[in-house]
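Sequence in, structure out. First:
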Amino acid sequence: MAKVFTLTSRVDRLEKDIENLRRDVAHLSEIISQYSAKIDVLVYAVQSESDKTKMWVEKELAKFERRLPTGKEDEK
C-alpha cells in the first residue's frame, strides 16, 4: 500500500512539473514570436536604408560622371 501511495504522489508531482513546463514553453513561444516580429521590422528598416544609400551613391556617381570631359577632342 505504501508503494501505491508513493507512486501516486510521484505521478501527481510529475504531472504538476509537466504543466509548469507547458506554461514555460507557451511563454517562451510568445516571447520568440514577439522577437521574430521585431526582427522582421528591423530587417525591413535595414533593407530600406540600404536601398536609400544605394540610390544616393548612384546619384552622386551620375553627377560626377556628368562633370567628366567627354573624351572627344575639341576641333579648333
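Second:
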Amino acid sequence: MTGRRTGAMIVGAFLLALALMTAAGALDEGLCLFPDITGWRGGETLWKELETLSEVMGYRSERLYRREADNHSIQVILLKGPGTLWQGLPKGEICADDGPVGSGATFRTLEAGGYRAVMEDHPLTGKALVVEMAPDSTLTFETAFEDVDLERFALVFLKQYQP
C-alpha cells in the first residue's frame, strides 16, 4: 500500500511540475512581449489566458509603466487570439467627436510605428491609443494624465516590441 501511495505521489508531483512548467512557459511568452522603456519604470506583467470550456481562445497581457520624473502612468494592454472579438479599425480616415449627446470625447485615426491606430481623447477618463497589430491582436495604451504623450511612447514601445 505504501509503495502505491509513494508511486501515486511521484506521478502526481511530476504532473504538477509539468503543468507548472507549461504555465511558466506561457507566462514567459507574455512577459517577454513588454520591453523596458528608458525614462519609465515597468511594473509587473500580468498575463491571463482567455479560455472557454473546450479551448484557449487567446490571452490578455498588461503592464503598467510609470514615468520616472513624476510617476505619471501608462497602462499597456495586449489582447491576442481568436477569442478577443477584435473586429478591426474602421476603414478610411476618421476625425470625429461623440456628438451632442456625448461627453466631449474625440477620435482620430493615425499611423503608429507602421500600424493603423485610433486615438480617443476623453475629457473625463483620459486618452487611449489602440494599435491594430494583426487581425487577432491589438495593443492599447491608456493614460489619465494630460501631459503624457501616448503617440511618442507607443512609437518607442513598438520599435522595441517583440511579438
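Remark: The first strand starts at residue 40 and ends at 51.
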